[in-house]
Design brief:
By secondary structure, this protein is of the alpha+beta class. The protein is 38% helix and 19% strand. It has helices at 44-49, 53-71, 112-120, 124-131, 140-150, 152-157, 164-173, 180-184, 198-204, 226-232, 246-253, 307-321, 332-340, 380-404, 423-432, 444-456, 480-499, 501-510, and strands spanning 9-15, 19-25, 31-38, 50-51, 78-85, 91-93, 103-104, 160-162, 177-179, 213-215, 220-221, 240-241, 261-266, 270-276, 288-293, 296-303, 350-352, 370-372, 411-415, 436-439, 472-476. The strands form seven sheets. It has a six-stranded mixed sheet with strand order 3-2-1-5-12-11, sandwiched between helices. The N and C termini lie far apart (56 Å).
Length: 515
């Protein structure tokens, strides 16, 4: 291996839901190396809802070291590091800085009743206007209320309540810090003045001292934990730029940093969002608004059911038909190929893909997954196609809300795992009836984290200049015939959703997600 001793480099880390990914770039944002590490292999229901905090540290070390090795760069030439993390996570920490709980992720639904109680009390609209967060069980504020009510011993013994990213940052630097976006996605930050919101604190029964300190994403910290720095293979004096969330980083890595350019993301979950220069709220609280820094806000909507529905379907099929042999198990590519054999519209089969409840635009965790229109002529291939199209319809519901609140765009950039497929982006382009552009580098969240190192160390001075650093790859235009068919089916999809409202409520009463 030939190591370039002089080439300066920067590293960005994405602490995702299912894995940790690290990318190394030079001062021009050119990719030098990439590394990834999966979290511990545990059962799927637990994996999505609650994680062991130590698996994040192990994966962080492995992914960074893998990236350094593959980039063939000198550790001494590292000029900066930044870590991005998933929104809406929560960990209770004791006085010795040890976790009292696992990481409660965005998909954990235990706080459904606590969020409903706030809505019933008539506080939802006021809290949304203050925080930009619709009242929903995914937000840490309601998970914290659940802890107070259901696990009082843990709640009372906790010295702090922090995000997964804040936990990792503390392990790296010794300081509990939350960037504005991670803080804003907790339901505790006032989206207008960027301080902890007093009514949110009172509602949860905590003080500002029990949360992380709120800091700018531009903040630079020196002095990494020596053991972790050594394990990662980088010097301990590398400056750490606090950076932002995986959502912001995904938009940055896609080059969508101006308000006229949206990001459409499908990974485990999905989202449609823009970066705006002002607070934008929806009168009916269908969208969210999270601060990035004093001059930028992330506006959009998110769906629980993105790639996770395809993961569920794949795992269900493999348990049923594969008889344990790895060679026989279906891959994601296999599912996509099966779906590609079916014509757009899946021969009238429509999927409401609410396997994990609903976030935007209706924020209803009582929704359930539905296949409608099944006949004897349908096969598993049609069901897979309908799943992909159902997720596309969910994204369309987000674009409609964004247009209504004045967030119209003239360009859409796509990120997330769907970019590894040719079929899924084409389905979404036709379902939205909009052209999509895919950045040449697909791991946009880790790249966005790396871009914060360029901003924080002064290599880039203008946030909006980032767009000029991101080259585009493939583009997808809507197919007119498919777009017409999807328009017809989308209307049926919306009618189904409305018609099933009372049935969703009833089945949720009989079989609640959280007993």
């Amino acid at each position: 291996m030939t190591v370039n001793q002089r080439k300066e480099w920067y590293i960005g880390v994405d602490l995702g839901t299912g894995s940790c990914k690290s990318v190394i770039i030079d001062a021009g944002a050119r990719i030098l190396g990439f590394g990834a590490a999966d979290y511990s292999k545990i059962e799927a229901p637990t994996r999505w809802k609650e994680q062991n905090p130590e698996t994040l540290i192990d994966a962080l070390i492995q992914s960074v070291r893998n990236a350094v090795d593959r980039a063939e760069v000198s550790p001494q030439a590292c000029q900066g590091m930044s870590v991005g993390g998933a929104l809406h996570s929560l960990i209770a920490i004791d006085k010795s800085r040890k976790p009292l709980t696992g990481i409660l992720t965005w998909i954990d639904a235990r706080a459904v009743k606590q969020a409903a109680a706030v809505r019933t009390a008539g506080d939802a609209h006021r809290i949304y206007r203050q925080t930009g967060c619709p009242v929903h069980s995914m937000y840490p504020i309601y998970k914290l209320i659940w802890l107070r009510e259901k696990e009082p011993a843990i709640f009372n013994n906790a010295a702090r309540f922090v995000s997964a990213k804040a936990y990792v940052i503390e392990r790296l630097t010794g300081q509990f810090m939350a960037d504005f976006n991670i803080a804003s996605g907790s339901g505790f930050l006032n989206v207008h003045d960027l301080t902890w919101n007093s009514e949110s604190l009172q509602l949860a029964g905590v003080t500002p001292e029990q949360l992380s300190s709120v800091e700018s994403p531009w903040k630079v910290v020196y002095g990494l934990n020596p053991e972790l720095a050594s394990a990662m293979g980088i010097p301990r004096d590398v400056p750490l730029v606090l950076g932002s969330s995986d959502a912001v980083n995904s938009s940055m890595g896609a080059g969508a940093v101006r308000s006229e350019c949206a990001t459409c993301m499908v990974g485990t979950s999905g989202a449609y969002r823009i970066i705006a220069k002002k607070v934008i709220l929806d009168p009916t609280a269908r969208s969210w608004c999270y601060a990035i820094d004093p001059n930028h806000w992330l506006i959009g909507g998110a769906i629980n059911n993105g790639g996770i529905v395809l993961s569920w379907f794949r795992e269900a099929l493999n348990k049923t038909i594969a008889s344990g042999s790895e060679e026989e198990k279906l891959s994601f590519d296999d599912l996509i190929n099966l779906a590609a054999s079916v014509r757009p519209g899946a021969e009238g089969l429509i999927c409401l893909p609410f396997l994990a409840g609903e976030r935007s635009p209706n924020w209803n965790m009582d929704t359930r997954g539905v296949f409608f229109g099944l006949t004897l002529d349908h096969s598993l291939d049609h069901m897979i196609r309908a799943l992909l199209e159902g997720v596309a319809f969910r994204l369309r519901s987000l674009t409609e809300v964004m247009d209504e609140i004045g967030c119209e765009t003239n360009e859409i950039r796509v990120s997330g795992g769907l970019t590894r497929s040719e079929l899924w982006p084409q389905i979404i382009a036709s379902a939205l009836n909009l052209e999509l552009h895919i950045p040449r580098w697909g791991e946009t969240s880790s790249l966005g984290a790396a871009l914060w190192t360029l901003l924080g160390t002064g290599v880039i001075e203008d946030f909006e200049k980032i767009k000029d650093l991101i080259p585009l790859g493939r583009s997808y235009s809507p197919v007119a015939e498919d777009a017409k068919r999807y328009q017809e089916l989308y209307l049926v999809y919306k009618q189904l959703y409305s018609a099933l409202g009372k049935s969703f409520d009833k089945i949720a009463d009989l079989y609640p997600l959280v007993p």
